[in-house]
Structure prediction request, 747 residues.
Amino acid sequence: MKKTLLAAGLAVLMILPAGAAMRRKPKAFTHETVEVPAIEAEIIAISAGNSSLILLADEDRLLYTLHYGSKVADPQEYKGYRTARFTENGNLNYTYPSTGGEFVGVPALHVRYADGNHNTDLRYQSHKTTRSGNVETTEIFLKDYVTLLEVKLIYEAYQKENVLIEHSVITNPGKEPVELLDYASGSMYIEADNYLLTHFHGAWAHEMQVEREMLGYDTKVIESLRGVQATQSQNPSFMLSLNTREFSETGGEVVAGALQWSGNFRLSFTRNESGRVNVLGGISPFASAYPLKKGESFETPGMIWTWSADGAGGASRNLHRWARNYGIYNGGSVNPTLLNSWEGAYFSFTTKTLTDMIDDAASMGLEMFVLDDGWFGNAYPRNGDAAGLGDWQLNTSKIPEGIDYVASYAHDKGLKFGIWIEPEMVNPASELALAHPEWIVQSPGRENYQIRNQWVLDLANPAVQDFIYGVFDSVMQMSPSIDYVKWDCNRIIESFYSNYLSKEQDRFYVDYVQGFYSVMRRIREKYPSVIVQCCSSGGGRVDYGALRYFNEVWTSDDTDAEIRVHVQYATSLIYPACIMGCHVSDVPNHQTRNVTPLKFRFDVACAGRLGMELQPKNLNEAERALADRCITSYKQYRDLVFAGDLYRLASPEDGPWYALMYVSQGKDRAVVFTYSTAFQVRDTGGQPFRLQGLDPARKYKVTELNVDSSCWWGSGRSFSGSFLAGGGFNPVIRHKYDSAIFLLEAE
Ligand code: GLA
Prediction:
């Protein structure tokens, strides 16, 4: 007797040849145990502001993606839609393509069942849409008709921001365990004549380097296998410019994406013979065949998508607005300016060094002092990077008066106080390493390699999660005056092995990240208002997974302003300025030995969250005066940096200038930053930067800040938005490291 899906609470169905279906010729099938009755083809329309995602559940209950892009006024017009492509052999645009059925290609889902079978053929069951304020959520239920494996696709559509977040929940209702071999968060089909991919590679002190390439007819993979510090070599984000070979800030269709995950990830772009591109984003399956026992579910992280018809600038502004409203911890707030002790003192300081720095920070108008590395460890004092990590007790010989003394000193001077920790790591030379060798990620009997003289703690282990939460908690107990924590993470994982997971090592990379998030959730419950910076040897953990718990990131250990121009430009394509920690440091620069003018260093750092990272005593009187002036003026316009709309006017990847501006939501104020990184030998009259985002009819008073004599003839006068957008704004930014900041105020 046939067992039907009806018995499992589902409609009985049978496959009918369906005229409206996308497939070249639907094939009827009869499965021994399950009948699958046909349904009437149904369009599922999801709109996110100005964009639409149109899906089709066809008569055979196969779920296809028909369109992602411009808003479709009447989605029902897609009923009966047929592809114009010559052949669809294997190239089916299933919304969540799985290994099995008629699909051949890079899958979103690939499952190995207990009997060794690799086939999953998902069929649509039902869907529902709910609305809560600005967010419309659509859930689509799919099932494999043989194994009954369930997949729920969840789309959150942010209407005001034009952003769509997709993720899946995979459930094993069967009796036998299964293994998830691939489990992408989401999949998107994009159809264009050609595709220009922009993505970001990097290294320590060189994060977020732009790479642009045309997609060919194959699969392009962007992946990180570093375990932690995943984003220092590749960032889980991209932009695809459509129907063009040129990158444009202002025009043309762009699809951008980013993954909310802080570990191994994979983005793949497959252009098959149909010419269409399928983008998959998710956790990397590398060494991570995730086991699902009977009744267990796996929830994938969110894949963020946005579409814009206004070039890269439009896509960035969509992501930035979404991030400030939803994607960043306290994304709407302004983080304080600060002096960080690292490059000014490194590991060598006494209480007096710190209180002197606090005095200097206060006198320059900075708002916080951050005590970086070096304050802890007694048996193994942290006097360098070879000892002490793991022993989070105050080093009483360095600061005998205690952290509370220094923190209260800062508060008394009107400054907030911050402190550095690196709780996921341990030096072999530490009491912790001796007490808990079983907490260290290391493969039994093998060499455990050190990077920066340290090892990684096994966050897949709940006892280690408790310890790491405890580090944060106990550090916070040292003083009620701690306002800010810099959370660092200074190495990658290799030769992975978790004692806790024992035979289930395939869980390690995923469970580590989930353990990290679980610790951060506990921290945020107890410490909702402490500002936490996400640092990982600089920008090793810059992703929208971590940013749900962190207020800002340390963009790069490279504080050379010329390098920062490139890092900050590229970061801004995906992430808003409010998260970018940008510090003015000493010259010659400690990383590159480059010498740049102090004004240039300030002008670059002022385009993000401004800080300083040097010994203020090394500044002469004129430099101090310039610092005071830059910090004072920054406070006048930083609300624009933190919450304004970003327009990039010139790209440092395409020429010697970088120029950008932030415009208030009401278009009544704006701030423009312009920089030169090379001498403009043929330039005679200054560079016209066509300002964007202004009201063409309004008049704006334009004032260059922090100078006695301006590099623009029009500084101090008022001009219409149309004049400023039309090429009239032409400051002379001609020599290497010339820079200027202009404030625009509507009359
Ligand atoms: C990392 C960080 C730096 C600093 C040092 C301290 O390299 O990125 O900013 O905190 O660690 O050891």
